[in-house]
Amino acid sequence: MIRNSQRSSSLILRLMASQVFVLCVLTGALGIYFYHSVRSSQEQRIETIVSGRASYYARLVSEMYPLNELKERPLLIAKMLGAERDVLAFRHPSGEVVIEVNPDGIPLPPPSTAAASSSTRTVTSDGIEVYWTSVQAKAMETNQPIEVLAGHPMADEQAMLATFRDRFLMATIAGVIVAAALANGLLRRGLLPVRDMATKAAEVHPGQLHVRLDVLHAPTELRALAGAFNAVLDRLTDGYQRLSQFSADLAHEIRTPLGILIGQTQVTLAQPRSLDEYKSVLESNLEEFEHLNRLSENMLFLARADEGRQVVDKVTLDMDRELHKIADYFEGLALERDMRFSIEAAGVATVNAELFRRAVGNLVVNAIRHGREGTTVLLRSASAADKMIIEVENEGAGLSPDQLGRLFDRFYRADPARSGSSSSHGLGLAIVDAIMRLHAGVADVSCPEAGMIRFRLSFPA
With 193 labelled, which of 71, 135, 180, 356 sits at a CA distance of 20 to 30 A? Predict the structure, then answer.
């Protein structure tokens, strides 16, 4: 069953079947056309001959020879007909035959009632079609009405048409077989680039992700497929590399708090401790557990955002009110570093309130942690075309273009000195990027001037 299914789904077999079908239709149509053309030409020729013969003998019996004289000289009429197996008969309107030349004994048609001439066709018991033409005349001496009937059996013509039909069918069958064989060879040769592409694609595996299809030398019809396949490989390669880096970063992030927990517990259990010492160890362990809990919650949020499982219910928020609320909430953290907020807010945005506050809050925390002490953090909102733009700007250490491009990566920290900090695990900006994707928006970062970092969130209006 599987083998039959594979054969029926073969592209070569489908193309061959299509080509053979088209060939059969075309040759069949041509054969039918030529067959009927030959048959029509023969019929016209026979009708012309038979009608001319009937008219000739009608004039003969009415103008040149008396009917009795013709009756006494049947050989004269037979010689006039020649060697053909044609039929000639002279008969009265009542159907009484006066003269009949009929070598094969073909039954005559009924008498015609037409005033001048008429034509008809009959078929013998052997299936031979006979063309008849009758002409009304008057006998030369008696002036009696007489019907001259001429007929031609189509035995030779039908045999010729049957031979033509049989030969055409044999030629068609032979042509179809030859065409199918040639089509099979040509199609297999023409589809070699597809096999080459499949062979090349089979070389791709996790240890060899750099393999790509040759788009430039691919056939025109396959270039789009090769380009799309290469684009898929590019995305898979990027995703695989990100996943590998993510796994390594996640292991590193988990290893640090776990190492602290294990170390503190081992030291505590090494000898008896007082109640206060046990309490201090538990409080320290609780802090690490909270760090792990935040890490797991953030990872779960990012996973749901990547899978599109996060439900986003949107409401309309006033930007001036929201940005002032966020600034008030983080005012204490800013004062610890002698930093202030400057707010330039206008307009409204249709967003998920909780996710919006979390995204802007993460940017504010990032600006406070990495900004220069004693500087101002600018919060700005403005409407632009069909977007609502939110900007968080602060002064800090300059970043290279490569660092700017990686700020939204998970577990990435521009400052290596903070890699061991338990207060930050490098997911804040990645969460901002995920929230913007859930809103069909865009998050980007730039350095408008030296020592200045500006994060911009573009929400659809």
Answer: 180
